[in-house]
Amino acid sequence: PGSGSCAPAGGGSVPVLFCFSVFARPSSVPHGAGYELLIQKFLSLYGDQIDMHRKFVVQLFAEEWSQYIDLPKGFLVNERCKVRLVPLQIQITTLGNLTPSSTVFFCCDMQERFRPAIKYFGDIISVGQRLLQGARLLGIPVIVTEQYPKGLGSTVQEIDLTGAKLVLPKTKFSMVLPEVEAALAEIPGVRSIVLFGVETHVCIQQTALELIGRGLEVHIVADATSSRSMMDRMFALERLARTGIIVTTSEAILLQLVADKEHPKFKEIQNLIKASAPESGLLSKV
């Protein structure tokens, strides 16, 4: 029963044996579940044992080979099966060490209709604009999403999207859309995502969790991220930090990306920081 695929299961869920290290726990997933749901289930079952700073591969037990194989592309759970999460031997030894060549900025749902509802919205717009200016100076790709723009409006006018690699509408809360995954696949050597926007406990949180599930390192910019409720925001940031996501600030991000006073863009980045640093009190509510 636990050794491989058997006959299709009835009902809306399929039994799956989830294996990690010396553990093996039976559970179930919805019929037709794919890679994302398998990763989420592994996190729910073994989250306290999984080192999120490592990269992993999901493998499926194949009866025809009598051993595990890497999860086939586009795999969907249609019958009882046995899967395992395998940590790769190579660890990410440069944890938190941002470089422009391996970084992408994600700007999430900074839209007009959110202006009256989101706390400190004017301040996160200002910081978001500074981050996008920095991205243009340093040649960092920018991916922008807008949550149901037909009803919630486009990105606010203060945010200059000139040169953005993608500006996409969405209804899913997470920014990890097929078009976004395709765009990331086109950028060689992507390791780090700098994420900011709204709302911290919804779209930001769900995006960050999906990204680390794919082995990417996520930096959330605390002074460019907010919610309607400061309690929701605070608990989301605490949860994400415990998961291995880096919660940081815009100034730390920009100066880490230039890394050296002798960097050819240092003066311009320094001027950006000096020109727009709102004293909102937002960081006191992290």
Main attributes?
Rossmann fold; Isochorismatase_domain; single chain; Isochorismatase domain-containing protein 1; six-stranded parallel sheet; Ubiquitin-like (UB roll); 286 residues; 2 domains; alpha/beta; five-stranded mixed sheet
Topology:
Layout: E1 13-20, E2 23-30, H1 35-46, E3 54-62, E4 67-70, E5 81-91, E6 103-108, H2 121-138, E7 142-147, H3 149-152, E8 166-170, H4 178-186, E9 192-198, H5 200-213, E10 217-226, H6 230-242, E11 246-248, H7 250-258, H8 266-275
Parallel strand pairs: 1-5, 6-7, 6-9, 7-8, 9-10, 10-11
Antiparallel strand pairs: 1-2, 3-4, 3-5
Q: Describe it for me?
A:
Helix content is about 30%, strand content about 25%. Helix 2 packs antiparallel against helix 8 and helix 7 packs antiparallel against helix 8. The protein has a 6-stranded parallel beta sheet, with helices on both faces. The protein starts with 12 loop residues before the first strand and ends in an 11-residue tail after the last helix. It has 2 domains: about 80 residues, Ubiquitin-like (UB roll), CATH 3.10.20.90; about 170 residues, Isochorismatase-like (Rossmann fold), CATH 3.40.50. The chain has about 290 residues and is α/β, with parallel strands linked by helices. It comes from Urocynchramus pylzowi. Pfam families: Isochorismatase.
Question: Could you give a short description of this structure?
Answer:
This protein has 286 residues and is an alpha/beta fold.
Using the 3D structure, state the CATH architecture of the largest domain. 3-Layer(aba) Sandwich
Please provide the count of β strands: 11
* Share of residues in helices: 25-40%
Which stretches are low in confidence, meaning pLDDT under 50 for 5 or more residues running? 1-10, 90-94
Number of helices: 8
Domain Isochorismatase-like: 103-251
InterPro entries: Isochorismatase-like_dom (IPR000868), Isochorismatase-like_sf (IPR036380), Isochorismatase_domain (IPR050993)
Protein name: Isochorismatase domain-containing protein 1
Organism: Urocynchramus pylzowi
